[in-house]
Design goal:
Helices cover 30% and strands 15% of the residues. With 423 residues, the protein is α/β, with parallel strands linked by helices. Helix 4 runs parallel beside helix 7. The protein has one domain: Aldolase class I (TIM Barrel, Alpha-Beta Barrel), CATH 3.20.20.70. Strand 14, helix 10 and strand 15 form a beta-alpha-beta unit. The structure holds flavin mononucleotide. The site of flavin mononucleotide has 20 residues, from strand 7 and helix 11. InterPro entries: Aldolase_TIM, OxRdtase_FMN_N, YqjM-like. This is NADH:flavin oxidoreductase/NADH oxidase N-terminal domain-containing protein. Keywords: Flavoprotein, FMN, NADP, Oxidoreductase.
């Protein structure tokens, strides 16, 4: 008689194999997940329908449900879960929370799940509750999430980040969880230092990074990439957006250095390009890397030097030449003076501009994209190649499957959830 849950599971598997309910091929013995024969979220066109008036031909498969390939990564649809800080870690470790949170998006058919901004150095965490990838000890917790996502047939990447002058802040949703000893207020850094470069009074006064420290951070991006690869990540996304360290270097608002990391656009982009080359050199060459960029500081209403879309186009071209495989186009986050006109698809025009001016580089659009029809329209207009959603997935983890149904696709559910197709 089986005595432990493990024994019972083994018996159940043996029984299912004997009865032919599963095959050894689809059931790796090293874990207890049934790898589905088709990826959840993959789809086929609606079939032809016969009516009294005649047969309506089968429609073409919507662009949103056409698979996308970059290097050896193929995703079954073009709906990506955007990275979202969950402030649910301690000392950088991913937990059961991440397993369930990220795993459920894969189980519910997202084409690609991007894990939250994950710090490449302890001082690069946005808050003490942020995930980290700065120690080999973090690898097993991350790998556990990756293995589960893969077991569903899904794909996953991780966003690599250094928060720079926006580090050591209180976790957004649970500001009082960590004691003062968990913060590193005196070790917050940026391209330029001093009170003039403090983001606002909820942030710390940064110290200016030395060239040696900049080089150390570039290396730390490389070491983090090796860990992501070891954990089995299908891709990594370099976080160059939202006012974190890379964006801080790009923008003259936060970068007023007088050495070769400041001044001209070429100099301000130097750190980003060094990071891209380091990440590329340390990741499996067969796997793609992504870059997230804020295409504008969103201060066009002010007469101040800033990072804006014309510069973003040039930087994206340089990033493409340095080895990125797709660009994820967001905006803002580098100054409280910004004005962002939030409306449906409010950042798509930036994605569109970059796609037009940097041909040959796949573009991910993000920002208030909340329905399958809206997403499909963006792709049909040629504004982007892929769509990402953050809040839409928090509201409806089934967002990708729902989009498929809305567009009339015969979309595949995870086998365990197959019955939902008929609900
Ligand atoms: C809870 C939450 C956490 C976020 N954390 C991150 C993050 O870790 N990295 C990042 O690049 N963007 C982050 N964002 C921004 C989203 O990825 C996305 O760009 C933004 O929410 C706009 O997309 P949406 O309208 O689909 O939500 C976060 C957004 C939310 C709502």
């Amino acid at each position: 008689m089986p005595t432990t849950q493990y024994d019972q599971s083994v018996d159940a598997v043996a029984d299912a194999l004997n009865k032919g309910h599963i095959s050894a091929k689809t059931f790796p013995q090293e874990h207890f997940h049934i790898v589905p024969p088709v990826a959840p979220g993959s789809g086929t066109p609606a079939t032809a329908t016969a009516t009294a008036e005649g047969t309506t031909p089968a429609p073409a498969l919507p662009l949103l449900f056409q698979p996308f390939t970059a290097k050896n990564l193929t995703i079954p649809n073009r709906v990506i879960v955007a990275p979202m800080c969950m402030y649910s870690s301690k000392d950088g470790f991913m937990t059961d929370y991440h397993l369930v949170h990220l795993g459920s998006f894969a189980l519910h058919g997202a084409g690609l799940v991007l894990a939250e901004a994950t710090a490449i150095e302890p001082e690069g965490r946005i808050s003490p509750g942020c995930a980290g990838i700065y120690s080999d000890d973090h690898i097993p917790g991350i790998k556990r999430v990756v293995d589960f996502v893969h077991s569903t047939g899904g794909k996953i990447g991780i966003q690599l980040n250094h928060a720079g002058r926006k580090a050591s802040t209180r976790p957004m949703h649970t500001p009082d969880v960590f004691g003062p000893e968990e913060y590193w207020n005196d070790q917050v850094v940026g391209p330029s230092g001093g009170a003039n470069f403090q983001w606002d009074d909820k942030h710390r006064i940064p110290r200016e990074l030395s060239v040696e420290q900049i080089q150390d951070i570039v290396k730390a991006f490389g070491a983090a990439t090796v860990r992501a690869d070891k954990a089995g990540m299908d891709t990594v996304e370099i976080h160059g957006a939202h006012g974190y360290l890379i964006h801080q270097f790009l923008s003259p608002i936060s970068n007023q250095r007088t050495d070769h990391y400041g001044g001209s656009l070429e100099n301000r982009a130097r750190f980003l390009l060094e990071v891209i080359k380091e990440v590329r050199a340390n990741f499996n060459p067969a796997k793609p890397i992504l870059l997230r960029l804020s295409a504008s500081d969103a201060v066009e209403h002010l007469d101040i030097p800033s990072f804006e879309v014309n510069q973003a186009v040039k930087v994206t071209q340089w990033a493409k030449d340095a080895g990125i495989d797709a660009i994820h186009v967001s905006s803002a986050g580098n100054t409280p003076l910004q004005k962002v006109a939030y409306s449906p698809g409010y950042q798509v025009h930036y994605a569109s501009r970059i796609r037009k001016d940097v041909p040959g580089l796949p573009v991910i659009a993000v920002g208030s994209i909340t329905s399958g029809k809206q997403a499909e329209q963006i792709l049909e207009n040629g504004d982007a190649d892929l769509i990402a959603g953050a809040r839409a997935f928090l509201k409806h983890p089934t967002f990708a499957l729902d989009a498929g149904r809305e567009l009339g696709v015969n979309v595949n559910y995870a086998p365990q959830y197959f019955a939902a197709r008929y609900a």
